[in-house]
Amino acid sequence: MLSFLLKMLMAVMIVCSAWQIGSAGKIYVKAWFAQQLLEHAWQRTQDGERNVRPWPWADTWPVSELVVPRLGIRQIVLSGDSGRVLAFGPGHTEASAVPGSSGMSVISGHRDTSFSFLKDIQDGDLIEVNTPADAFSYIVSERTVVDQRYFSLNTHINSQSEALHGNQAYEASLMLVTCYPFDALKAGGDERFLVLATR
Amino acid sequence: MKALMKPFMKRGRGAKQCAPYLIRNLDADEIANNLIDTLPQKRSSITVTDLGVLVLLFVFWFMSESVLAGVVAGVVEGVVEGVVEGVVEGVDAGVEVSVEADSTERPYSSLWLRSIDAAEPETTDHEASAYAASTLETTISMTVSGPILRAKVRQKFRNTTQLWSEGIYTFPLPEQAAVDRLRMVVGERVIEGQIHEKQNAQRIYQKARNEGKKTSLLSHHRTNVFTTSVANISPGEEVIIEFEYQQLLDFKDDRYALRFPMVSTPQFTPPRMRLDPAFVAPHNNIRSDQEDPGNPVSITVDLKAGFPIETLTSTSHLVKKDKLSEAHYKVSLAGRAEVSNRDFVLSWKLKPSADPMVRVLREDVEGESYGLLMLMPPQLSEENGLERNERINRELILVLDVSGSMQGESIEQARSAMLKAISQLRSEDYFNIIYFNTRARQLFPQSRPAAVGNLNFARRSVLDQNADGGTDMRPALQMGLSAPGESERLRQVIFITDGAVSNEAELFSEIKMNLGDSRLFTIGIGSAPNSYFMRKAALAGRGTFTYVSQTKDVSHKINNLLRKLASPSLTDLGFDINDPSASVLPQPMPDLYLGEPIYVAFKSSHFPKYAELSGKLDGVPSSLRVSLQNPLRHDGVAVEWARRKISALQEAYRDVGVGVGVGSYSGSDMGSERDVDSGASFGSGTERALSSKERKQAIRNEIVDLAISHHQVSKFTSLLTVDIDSEASMRAGGLLKSHRIPANRPKGWVGTSSSASNGIRLAQTATDARYRLLMGCMFLLGGLLLWIGFHCVQGRTLCSRSC
Fold this sequence. Notes:
The complex is a heterodimer of chains A (about 200) and B (about 800). With about 200 residues, chain A is of the alpha+beta class. Chain A is built from 4 helices and 8 strands; from the N terminus they run αββαββββααββ. The longest helix of chain A has about 45 residues, at about 1-45. Chain B has 19 helices and 34 strands. Classes of the chains: A alpha+beta (about 200), B alpha+beta (about 800). At the A-B interface, helix 1, helix 2, strand 6, helix 3 and helix 4 of A face helix 1, helix 2, helix 3, helix 4 and helix 6 of B.
């Protein structure tokens, strides 16, 4: 009887461990697997198709390609930045500017999958964004940590380009967003790490 | 779908049931007892069969999860994760793993373009109070000298965190304030601010900020809202930002009024505006109602009225008054430091005999003479104004804002204002009522006479109004100003609102376009109305602005306004000092109503001896010669002239843009009516020749030149300080944390608060992967340890038996 209990205990331990490791693995595999499918979709996008869904039931599609040459990073950016989209790769906030156009483009990614490389980024790094039509390069000019509860993108980050607002639209810039601190265990923190890059 | 979910659900339940065993088995003695009874042959069956099954199960589940991830992502994930989360937490508690399980699940919607009124899930509000990043204390000392007020505002930023930080605070100032001094105090040192073109200032600030130097920037954010930023405050340090502004005080109904706004009511932006790239989202960084209000403010006023004061009161705060002489008082807040959640209002009345009809101030700066004339036209004094024109045929349209921002005290005040106005109607008047929030609705399809039946119907409808929804003023303005009515009557539109809108420019042009012969009067309600908007709206509507701060003031203020509306007014005012090169402001001059003085500021190469004032009193031309001999020498006259000039130019600039931006009519049409002529070179002659872009650029340059020569903050200029000597290397490339200091909720305001404002919310950008990996490893380790322990104990038992 007691040996049965012990067996149960061990079984439970192993099941729980499998759960945890499995769901962690799921997150990584999803991100990895999706990038493979996205690769194909991106090729088709570059060939002139619009809104290519990487798998038939996807609610997102590749919009551009993000390259950081120094860190050897190349990722395909999806449209939208909902939790579901970000599980597959970095997402472009639809309300922000289209990369390359005037205004700020915002791309968000998970700190532990797609955007884990941001912790190594430095001021002056080159970031390239390739859209089907064109290629744009940005230089990292600023890195900041903000509390998202007290932060709204329109108001703060654009304040430096706000002077221009009287005349023109904002200057073209790129913002990469991920969670901070990088080594936090749990999701759901309020701090965000922002990387601002200008052309 | 159900079939897919089943295994997960089942496993979840199973694990939950196991949890009690888990806890019990942790008892060391019990484990030992259990182990002694275990038979050796059962050991192998556990290893091979059970483990094999488990591994298979795990592999199957893992594969199904990852491969089918796309299919089930949307629906299943939520359910599964909910179950798993629950299990994990239950187990956590049992094993006492010291990883904090955060139960606050944040919604995964990351991009919020939210309206103030939309109910959003707020999960973090209760945490916000714990978030004390940088704190701020404000000390304001004001000096009043005659009609001119000069205030010194000290903002003390204190960094309470362990990181280097940047403090950003957005705050309102009185709408006629001219900000012209900035100092940064770091320890013993005082660094004087310089005026720069705004973009330039921003660039220098950013550079100094990135280099780790102490720097501060004071810039105009929108309308009467300003922002101070201080970068590189070291942990535990205090930096004081001190700026000065000047303001000309309002004089109305025999009283001077001083109003200092402490918070601005969150503004509503109609949805279509929000995606407009030219639109700057308002700063609504408001503390939630669970949070303790912060940002203490203390105010002292040194009041030198110049003439004996009869009464001195504050309707907003409890004040301590020290009388130094008949004309000189010192006023301070009785409670030491007040919470900045409502506007500070102080008003005083001069003794009647001492109250002069004319006051002339003069200042000479760099060879130019600046003058300020304050004059009470004799025709509009009370004795002869009232009776004569008792019979103006008029149509009164009352427009009431019933949007969400009016909730609480504001709507109460507004209701009593409406009831008062209704009761003041004379039987020969026509009237109508318009209520608006996101939509506008009329009480009557057409204005009706103020007969008893109609009045009662109106009263009942007023009492039925509740504040809810967004604020879209455009349809209401259109309806109020251009509704078909009695053509022979003078239409007076009374607009009662808190002005919580941010598409002001659009509304001003709407007013100008639809005004015709109507007059628009605005009444500001609530503890923090947007008086910039209402003053300008009244100016554009050729009416006046009245501010009501308290419910008990309503009756008195509405009475005054309605009496004013019923009595003659001085229109088409002209002011001539016989000098073609002189610059006189305001231009054109607003209509004058009973109890209001004219304020004119002018710049001339030589100070004039007299001025010719002309106007139409109820359509009859009349004129008046005012002597400007023996002016009082006074500081700040030039500042006032420059402020008026800059403000007029900014309006001209805005109007050029509106024609293009809104696209419903051309810029030149609306400009001709009132505002564009402020810059002599932008008259109608050159207007058509230049493209709107060039005109904008020209006006912009003029504003920048003027603001820089007068050292004033404007739409295009900012004040900047950089501490060149600061130890730049201290921060050494470390991160700088940016803190936006939240504003308090306006008193009595009960709208849905959000600590995050309009604009793009940042995405939720982390997963639980690491946490889960850690947990998994821990369980695995636990299982392994148990396994080893099991072996050891059994080995020993066998050994002892055989021996």
